[in-house]
Amino acid sequence: MTVLPRRSLAAGAGLLVGAMALGARAQQQIASVAVSPKITAKPLTFNPDKVKGLSADLLRGHHGHYADQVKRLNAIHEELTKLDFANAEPAKLAELKREELATHNATVLHELYFDGIGEAPIPPSGLLAQAMARDYGSMDRWKAEFAASGRSLASGTGWVIMAYSARDKRISTFVASDDSMTPASALPLLAMDMSEHAYGADYGKETAKYVDAFMAAIKWTNAERLYREAMRV
Ligand SMILES: [Fe+2]
Questions:
Q1: How confident is the model at residue 36 (pLDDT cuts 50, 70, 90)?
Q2: CATH of the domain at 89
């Protein structure tokens, strides 16, 4: 039998204890990664009774729809946290991941939508106004493209998204036909919800009137803040 010197035994024991501690730390790290923070629905930043062209009932009901999506996103995160990915049924995981992306996007886009509405709209200013003049030629040109993009979505679903592309170094207007479609590598600054639930109660099928009402109610302060942040990235 090999007799190890006392110092080697002590060193070996130290390594074992160290390895056990490392294992415990690694497990703690895995556990901490696995916990998804709860997302809280953002409250409206305006008084819905004072927005021209969009009724308070419509806006409150729509905000409730957004809050339900936040709850669903939290439930999806919780389900994913508990999932054994190594043994998960592929079709179930694919569906959950599809819904995670769509719900994640829907919550972000609804926050942009509501943060872009104001009681007393004023035109964009500062760096964003300069960038829009550079990238669209004029505010009239931006407005014409944004509004026409909204009217082009006659299916009762989808988004018009104004976003800054870090790759292209410019602002563009994109049309997403559902919640899963957003411009890759671009930071959205403003979103117009073209889902039927965003206008049906006030305008029925008259989407052009809804588009005009939204355009007239745009509050630019949030888009200006997001653009300034995008410039720092
Ligand atoms: Fe919506």
A1: confident
A2: 3.55.40.20
How many A from CA of 184 to the centre of ligand 1? 21
Phi, psi of 7 (to 5 degrees): -65, -35
For 91: left if phi > 0, alpha if psi spans -120 to 50, otherwise beta; the answer is alpha
Predicted structure pTM score: 0.83
Identify the bridge partners of residue 165 per DSSP, sorted by sequence position. 170, 186
Give the total number of structural domains in the chain: 1
pLDDT band (50, 70, 90) for residue 125: very high
Q: Rounded to whole angstroms, how far apart are CA atoms 109 and 101?
A: 12
CA of 96 to the centre of ligand 1 (A): 21
163 occurs within a structural domain: yes
Query: Ligand 1 centroid to 210 CA: how many Å?
Result: 13
pLDDT at 71 over 70: yes
Rounded mean pLDDT of 210-229? 96
For residue 6, report the distance from its CA to the centre of ligand 1, in Å.
71
How many angstroms is it from 198 CA to the middle of ligand 1? Answer: 5
